[in-house]
Amino acid sequence: MTPRHGEATAPKPVSPSRRAVLAGLGVVPILAVALPSARATAAAAAAVVVDPSARRQTIRGFGGMNHPEWAGDLTAAQRDTAFGNSAGQLGFSILRIHVDEDRSNWSKEVATAQRAVAHGAIVFASPWNPPANMVETFTRGSQTNAQRLRYDMYGAYAQHLNDFTQFMKDNGVDLYAISIQNEPDYASTWTWWTASEIVTFLRNNAGSISTRVIAPESFQYIKSMSDPILNDSTALATMDILGAHLYGTAFSNFPYPLFQQKGQGKELWMTEVYYPNSTDSADLWPAALGVGEHMHHAMVDAEFQAYVWWYIRRSYGPMREDGQISKRGAIMAHFSKFVRPGYVRINAASNPQTNVYTSAYTGGSTVVIVAVNKATSAVSQQFTLANTSPSSVASYVTDAGRTLASLSGPSLANGTLTASLPAQSVTTFVVSVGSSSGNDTQAPSTPGTLTASQVTSTSVTLSWAASTDNTAVTGYDVVRLSGSTETAAASSTTNQATVTGLTAGTAYTFAVYARDAAGNRSSRSSTVGVTTSTGTSTGGCGVGYRVTSSWSGGFQGELVIQNTGTAALDGWTLTFSFTAGQTITQMWGGTAAQSGGAVTVTPADYTRSIPSGGSITVGFLADQGSTNPAPTGFTLNGGACTTA
Questions:
Q1: What CA–CA distance (Å, rounded) separates 434 from 532?
Q2: How far apart are CA 476 and CA 479, in angstroms?
Q3: From edge to edge, which strands make up the β-sheet containing 379-385?
Q4: How many Cα atoms sit within 13 Å of 43 on the Cβ side?
Q5: Does the CA dihedral 299-301-304-306 come out positive or negative?
């Protein structure tokens, strides 16, 4: 992104105000935090059960952007404040840098990147533009000087990204990943990409890039930019990290079911944001408390593995221009200092009482709980650690008068800690855990042979011979295997579990672990492979149709086909009619046949199956005349669909 909201900079292209863009989209970032009304402290809520055995996503880290060309480089002291993890430091473990189109500027990125790496951080890079000789201008709506990567330069551009990767490596910085394009759907003064262009580049060119590849970095986590990648197996194979920005994105749009379905083995990162705005001081309180709620939803609802701020040093950023940590930075540090790379988010009630948000993480013999209290009164909250035994707890708080201050307590008894969360605060609890059975370090025996039964189009029941333990087996964890990646599929207290939410006509591999009360985990069982059944249906469908962008004489559209029936669809045919001479010229996710205005769409291999309650997305390019009315009706497999 370029500097926002009239920030003073060196002479660089100035982007249109993000506020103007968001207002045009009907979404404006929050300017101030709406405070809840004062009320008496309620009785203590039910305890939040924190279960280290119920594991979610692995955390890659937290960090921010350094952009010497636009905002000046961090000083030596500021680099240590950002990436060190001692008192008065942020503990960032991720640095984002800029891939300049002019390689003579690349050396400006080296010093801060080297220091970040020395502190153990990973570094990734994002480009705003290709070199000038690779770019062409075109007309995009009312923008007559829009620019895009020339189609005959895709290979050269991949080499440009490789050259930057090698340059950083030669200077002691092994990039963890590199992005194809920063905000391809909010370009204006940089390079536009359509979803289909990104898919084409991924399919044909990204495989030659020598580090991990990030795409698409949509500025509002627009799913129509990333759905086509997830729905194209060849493109998906070359994308390692699905990156997203969250400018103005509603919390309700944070979850991404399609990624959870098809992104096994891939990482999910939030690669840029500022919140709630770039106009207020980062020390304004309680507005800064909104950062804590935003990070909570990013970790819990979206299940991001990384959370990356825009400029590290800025009046609205985690570090003030004087190099000191701001209130917004302190809120970030409640996560980044204690939830370290490789920690895993674990199950915990996310909203145990009004205005209270909690999330939990584990790494080694440590459990970290982050609690955000937006209420104007202190509240009492209990936390009970299941399947382990806490031995001690340290806590840290940031509120109106304190910043990352160490607290005494809270009390700890019988595996439960009881804490008072101060009014309008973020509190982090760092819990040391050990065996709940004294010196019990013996793991349960390996579960017996795994078998599958009752296989349907969306579920399977798994059984195995029970494990034994020197104390007692307390549960089993079923995992789904994809290569070397394990994904939690189900948990059970018996030697049987039913896995649901599967896709029809799809092959899966499962295994199971046993665990005991001390948290010891058995070796993994043998595996079992199953293929879910297929089904067809002509009833229960919905179709969403929208134009995602348009220009003189053409447009890009999207069809979201929903299976609202009770059985999975295995193969489908969609028909509809254009009424104003529109003609489809290209389609992904399906194949279009058109006769006059009548259009028939059949699926690609990867969109053939639609589970009950599921949906797939088909995108297309089309020519148009002076008007572009939407189709008025859709038919799927001969049955009429509802429209949205």
A1: 41
A2: 10
A3: 405-407, 389-398, 425-434, 366-373, 356-363, 344-347, 48-58, 379-385, 416-421, 411-413
A4: 1
A5: negative
Catalytic residue among 101, 109, 183, 293: 183
Alpha-carbon dihedral sign for residues 214, 216, 222, 228: negative
Kindly report the three-state secondary structure assignment for every residue of 390-442. Answer: EEEEEEEEECCCCCCEEECCCEEECCEEEEEECCCEEEEEEEEEECCCCCCCC
pLDDT digits (tens, 9 = 90+) for 343-365: 999 999 999 999 999 999 998 88
CA distance linking residue 416 with residue 48, whole number of Å: 9
* C-alpha to C-alpha distance for 639 and 39, rounded to whole angstroms: 54
Classified as helix, coil or strand, 241 is strand
pTM over 0.70: no
DSSP H helical ranges for 90-153: 110-118
Distance, in Å, from the CA atom of 474 to the CA atom of 491, rounded to the nearest integer, reads: 11
Which tokens go with 36? Answer: 């809840």
Stated as kind and residue range, the H or E segment containing 207 is: none
CA 103 from centre of chain: 30
Spatial CA neighbour of 293 closest among 105, 600, 33? 33
List Cα–Cα distances, 214 to 211, 229, 255, in angstroms.
Answer: 10, 11, 19
Q: Which amino acid is at 80?
A: D
CA distance 362 to 521: 15
Cα-based torsion angle of the residue sequence 362, 367, 372, 373 in order, rounded to the nearest 10 degrees: 150
**CA separation for the pair 209, 230 (Å, rounded):** 19
Beta bridge partners of 373: 356, 425
Give the count of beta carbons closer than 10 Å to the beta carbon of residue 203: 17
Q: Exposure of 402 by Cβ count < 10 A (0-12 exposed, 13-18 middle, 19+ buried)?
A: middle
Question: Could you give the strand order of the β-sheet that contains 541-551, starting from the edge strand earlier in sequence?
Answer: 583-588, 615-623, 554-563, 541-551, 642-643
322: CB partners within 8 A, 6+ apart: none
State CA 387 to chain mean position distance: 28
Nearest to 117 by CA among 37, 155, 61: 61
538 HSE (CA, 13 A, CB side): 6
pLDDT, tens digit, 9 for 90 and up, residues 613-636: 889 999 999 999 889 999 988 988
d(CA 459, CA 644): 29
CA dist 417 and 409 (Å) reads 9
Which helix H or strand E contains 71, and what residues bound it?
helix 68-71
What six digits make up the tokens of 275? Answer: 């919140």
Q: In whole angstroms, what is the distance from residue 485 CA to residue 305 CA?
A: 15
Residues in contact with 232: Cβ distance below 8 Å, sequence separation at least 6, in sequence order: 199, 202, 203, 588, 589, 606
Q: Alpha-carbon distance 95 to 112, whole Å?
A: 9
Separation of alpha carbons 563 and 617, rounded Å:
12
Tell me: the pLDDT tens digits for 486-531? 677 887 778 888 887 787 767 788 889 887 766 677 888 888 887 7
What tokens appear for 455 in the block? 């296989």
Give the long-range contacts of residues 407-410, CB within 8 A, separation 24 or more.
none
Does the annotation count 183 as an active-site position?
A: yes
Which of 197, 217, 267, 272 is flagged as catalytic?
A: 272
Q: Please report the beta strands in 82-132, taking only residues with DSSP state E, as ranges in sequence order.
A: 94-99, 122-127
480: closest CA among 260, 233, 242? 260
pLDDT value at residue 518:
63
